[in-house]
Model the fold of this input.
Amino acid sequence: MKKINKTILMSLIIIFIFLGLKNYFNLYKKKYPQVENEFLINESIRTLNECFDLENKNKRSIKGSMVLIEYCLKEYGYKKHKKNN
Done:
């Protein structure tokens, strides 16, 4: 009788561990798209910062800066970057 109780107890423990691991991995999968989305946003920010040429911003007029910003957003914007990947 004691062997049967130990077997049932061990089976229940293994089942609970399996269910716990399964739930943990499901939660991790739900969080993963956020990490991928953050990566895309950070990559877009890096690309746009390179395009804006912030080091030479004092040499441009306001109109020239606006034209450059419009060009960068059309050419390297977040949605465009997301489509390429």
Summary: The chain has three helices and no strands.
